[in-house]
Amino acid sequence: MYISMVLDMNFALSVLSICIASIGFALFMKLYLKYTSKFETYKSIPEGKMGLPWIGETIDFYKAQKNNKIFEEFVHPRIAKHGKIFKTKLMGSPTIVVNGAEANKFFMSNEFKLVISSWPSSSVQLMGKDSIMEKQGEAHRFLRGLITSTLNISGQEILVPKICDTVQCHLEKYWKGQENIRIYPLAKKLTFTIVFECLLGLEVHNGILCVFKKVLEGVFAPPINVPGSKFYRAKSARKELNRLIVSAVREKKRELEEEEKESGTLFSRLVLAMINGEITEDEVVDNVILLVFGAHDTTSFVIAMMFHMLGRYPDCYSRLLQEHNQIRSKKKPGERLSYEDTKKMSYTWQVARESMRMFPPIFGSFRKAVVDIEYEGFTIPQGWKVLWTTYGTHLNEEYFEDPETFNPSRFDKPVQSYSFIPFGGGPRLCAGYQLARLNILTLVHYVVTQYEWSLIYPDENVVMDPLPFPSQGMPIRISPKV
Ligand code: HEM
């Protein structure tokens, strides 16, 4: 009796489960068909798979990103199957992934006309809606003008000696007397100080780097604002940062109004524009934060990867060292580098470019179509995202012969335009590119002329979370040159 009751119950439960599963499946199919038929009117959407409703192929993308294999595991297999332009769905958005110099040129140079930049919600909330990356048209042009005017040739002539002092101070504080150091975290400290002190002209207070780090950690985290989440911690740090920067803005405003003299630093220029009513206080704050974000992990990763490759390619290192010894030999003891000296570091910059080709700090960037776009016989519907990727050209032998080989000399000759794009291109080309260049060249100069060094882990992995970084922080053995 008891057994038959249990069997009856089991049977009833099985029938119920089958019913629930069937209803679930029917609902799922209905949603899926509704979702796929929505775009049937567009006959020429690029090929590709949209994956599951809402999630799309996000899990595959994140998995590839975690392994630092976005190209090998996500982009390349889809290029092989569907061609250089394919569709997918990422983080809830239908997305067209575009690869190749021609496509890069088309989408990057049509910024504001056909596409606008489109950052994840967590980045916008943490960087602020008033940062340059969220601006279009005239507002974008004005902010960009302020930033790039600090980095024109006369701006760079002023910056180089300041960067030299900062680098020497950094080496004195963190390298001197050490046997082992980790290049990547130290390069982050240095980059932060260079942006804050040399570019912006702000003093670095104790603890501010820590607050910045917490904000940066949440920039690509899911925007889940619950206590304990990365995003929640980043939002709290952002509030703290706001307080600190707002008080610096108001102090600078008082100074500028009382003294009526402008120091020429980017921070003064931003505050002066605020006094003149051209931008708001929020715009000053958001752009200070954005500049640190734009510079910090990117420049430090390039520095780390340059040392990684130089440690593995002694011939390249000898040639680079020769370049710096020559510059050094023309200087008096203690004399700083000049902007002209940095122009002589052409091979070093080729090493940096080759490192960025193989290990781009930014894998690509999202845009949003503001109208239906016709490109190469395809239609990209209005509202869809477009993702351009660095890997799509950097690792393609159509643009770079033998792309897996580290060969800085490939940059002896100019490369096809829009094929080398670590700094992006078009109206949104990196606004701090010259600062990154000076930061990298100056640090390399002082390190290679003052230190013997060798890699501790020549096979150290690069991981991504979500930006790439060396898994061990790139430790090196160092000893001062005699
Ligand atoms: C090696 C170092 C760097 C790399 C690889 C890099 C890369 C990039 C890329 C790819 C973009 C374009 C993003 C897009 O198209 O959506 C960009 C934009 C930008 N970067 Fe950099 N960046 C670097 C260093 C810096 C530095 C040092 C600063 C400033 C101090 C900076 C400030 C900016 C700003 C303000 C933008 C936005 C430009 C705009 O929207 O008009 N970057 N960067």
TrEMBL record:
**Signal sequence: where?**
none
TM ranges are 12-33
UniProt keyword annotation of Oxidoreductase present: yes
Cite the PROSITE patterns for this sequence: CYTOCHROME_P450
Stated membrane topology is: Single-pass membrane protein
The residues listed in the UniProt record as binding heme, with positions renumbered to this chain, are C430
Keyword terms, alphabetized: Heme, Iron, Membrane, Metal-binding, Monooxygenase, Oxidoreductase, Transmembrane, Transmembrane helix
CDD domains linked to this entry: CYP90-like
- Major subcellular location class: membrane
Protein name as it appears in the record: Oxygenase
